[in-house]
Write a structure and sequence with these properties.
- By secondary structure, this protein is of the alpha+beta class.
- The chain has a domain of about 325 residues: Cupredoxins -  blue copper proteins (Immunoglobulin-like).
- Helix content is about 20%, strand content about 25%.
- The protein has 10 helices and 21 strands.
- Strands 10, 11, 13, 15, 16, 17 and 19 form a 7-stranded mixed β-sheet that branches. Strands 1, 2, 3, 5 and 7 form a 5-stranded mixed β-sheet that branches.
- Helix 2 packs across helix 10.
- It starts with a helix and ends with a helix.
- The relative contact order is 0.13.
- The N terminus is likely disordered.
- The structure holds copper (II) ion.
- The site of copper (II) ion (CU) has 7 residues, from loops.
Length: about 500
Amino acid sequence: MINTRRQFFGLLGAGLVSAKGSLSAAPATASLAGQYDHGHARERASSGGSPSTEDLLPVITPNVPKLPWTMEQGVKVFNLVAEPVTSELVSGRALNGWGYNGTIPGPTIEITQGDRVRIIVENRLPEPTSMHWHGFEIPIAMDGMPGISQPLIQPGGRFVYEFTLHQAGTFFYHSHMAMQEMTGLIGLFIMHPKEPLTPRVDKDFGIILQEWAILPSNTVPNTMSMEFNWLTMNGKSGPATTPLIVKLGDRVRIRLVNMGMDHHPIHLHGNTFYVTGTEAGRIPPAAWAPANTVLVGVAQARDIEFDAKYLGDWMLHCHMPHHMMNQMASMVGPMLESGHGMQTGMGMEEGMGMLRQGDALARENGPSLGRSIGISAEHERAITNAPLGGRQRAMAGMAMTGGVGSQHQGHGHEQQAGQEQMTHPASTSDPWRVPGYPQDMAMTMMSMSKVPPQPETYGLAPGWSGEMMGMMTLVRVLPPDLYEQVMERVRASA
Ligand SMILES: [Cu+2]
């Protein structure tokens, strides 16, 4: 036991140091390389012998590490520490939330159906907490309901949960204190079935969907807000999300979990998938429905599966329009427009959006209406992914060269298909005369130097990051050669 705890604190210490030392994604990237490596180990292991625990394909959770465990007299022992965590939503945009073991979301737990587990939850938060095992069919004493099934876990205290798991599927754990849920205290809990599912998948990914309200110039989420300006997948907003790397012909499973105040219709471009699982486990195949968008409701999990038949860098994103932006606010155009954003520190009337003159779309009024976010336009502008200001350049078009999509013309598009520049109509030569303008960001692409490269972004089209925002990532279905090149980089980053 002493040895176990020493190992555990050693791991934890390493995590804390890296979290404090820099805001880079290095620790998560390193662990991700390991996650893909497990897949290779499985490929080798599965070439002979009967199915075993090692034969079960581990889930890849980009930007989120796996929780290590030790075996003690037939029990898998895990340690979770609830604590304040500093992470990064996109490059240069810090988040001061609460998480587990140094990450938001907390580390992924993987077990096999039938396992007995002991999970020691330690509270290093400044207030009491409690852990709920969402959807687990376990004794009431382990349900994590303070006052009902157990006392609160006080700061500095811990609670030992132990139970046997007979279920299989995509589950999750979370604090059962509502506002703590909204500041990051959640993690994936994958229960692998004893017998591998059929058809077997080659890649199995897990993504937790979260949303955050963070005032400009702040790093601490407002957990009471109903308006969210940062939407994340595994704690990252586009373009900082890590693409899911798939080889042409792979069968792919993606497990989606939603913890927030909104539902998220997650849409995959260019492919048809089947919804194969819920937060309660596997859906019988006869009930699988084809779809390209799956609604992941609050507190729900959805598994989707598809055969990666089409080459391309396919977007996977929430289709709620406001969830496809960073520092989202109503009147997003005026908010971002240089010199016309409502500045923080103004009077109450301006801050509340009370109109004394002009109309709701007036450039001087728009930014704060209907939203509680408040604006510091110039500050936010500096880290906006696709800022206004380059409309004319955007109108001139952007040549897309490189990237899987353009290289391989995935679906056999005609060669002459593509961007063309039309003669300017009046509405483009004087956009301020157009009611409603501006709406979207002009597509002035963020220079690549501002987006820290990841091994998984190798070979993407120049300018790929410009429209990657919010709850958005890529499923990269790569030809074997490019797949190997990317995976070499993923492994080298370990
Ligand atoms: Cu959404």
